Amino acid sequence: MKHLIILILSYNFIFANIYENLNDFAYDKKPNKNISIKKAEILSFYDNKNPCIQLLITDNEVSILKTFDSCKKLNNATFLEFLNKDFLSLYQDKQLTLKKEFKNLKNAMQDIMIYYKLHYSFSKDIKDMSKNQNLTILNIDEKEGGILLYKINNQACIGIELQKTNNRMSMKVYGIENLDRQCKILIDSPSFKNLSYSKKDFNLYYLE
Predict the structure, then answer these.
(1) pTM of the prediction?
(2) Using an 8 Å Cβ cutoff, are 182 and 163 in contact?
(3) Residue among 154, 153, 144, 204 nearest 174 (CA)
(4) pLDDT digits (tens, 9 = 90+) for 58-73
(5) Rounded to an integer, what distance in angstroms lies between the CA atom of residue 205 and that of residue 203?
(6) pLDDT of 120 higher than 50
(7) Using CA atoms, how far apart are residues 208 and 205, in angstroms rounded to an integer?
(8) Which residue, among 97, 73, 105, 103, has the nearest Cα to 173 in the 3D structure?
């Protein structure tokens, strides 16, 4: 009986200590030796305005807080792997790597456009048209155009097609599937999709 009383008192002391620490934190709103804070965000996803899934995002993990009936099938190992690899790395791209890559691509496209406007022809030496080191020539005709490749991690990721359309030189861009993860994320991004095509067809950028 004596041991039981001591055990109950110990539990009461532990709980009292937790209450006190939490109360102190609520007052100061600052971490201390007993309490640490991890930045987290809650993402709520809706499917056709219906609640689908709630995610808890921290610096190093994405976990599922709640799944609703319409999205129960998402609560599986494959989806969690996607969340903690592709999604998390893109979401926490602190160096804005993909945004910089997208900006470099747009600058390369602009280089080609400016070169053509000045010369009304293309060059078989890519360095004449752009200093972007990711650009290479697959095939080119000075007057008729051709195909340039934009590489990521030394792998062809984006095609830039130059051709006559309605008697005007035009440019279109499209993604090239490969095994490079950074390339896949870039060509799947909303920014690249908007650059590449509309709902009906590829976007055409006229050079003249």
Answers:
(1) 0.70
(2) no
(3) 204
(4) 888 999 999 998 888 8
(5) 7
(6) yes
(7) 9
(8) 105
